[in-house]
Amino acid sequence: MASTSAIAAVNTAILQLLKRRETETSFGSLACESYDISEFDNEIQNGFSLCLWRVTINGSRRALPPRRLPDGRAFRPSLPIDLHYVL
Hints:
Layout: H1 4-23, E1 31-34, E2 47-57, E3 67-68, E4 74-75, E5 81-86
Parallel strand pairs: 1-2
Antiparallel strand pairs: 2-5, 3-4
């Protein structure tokens, strides 16, 4: 199951990809920030925001087999999730 730190790492990775792409274009200097739903009242004047809108369980990959270590021990499979963003 994804932890909150794993979800935060995905959020950070998406922001870094967007910022890197923004510097390669001719748009100039645009702000790219992660927003919480409560921060929508304070909009960015020159740029865009990324907001994690919801987290859902991935239905098509839910019935995964147990994970096995090289010594044969089995673990419950991780719960696959989908992250839905608003940009």
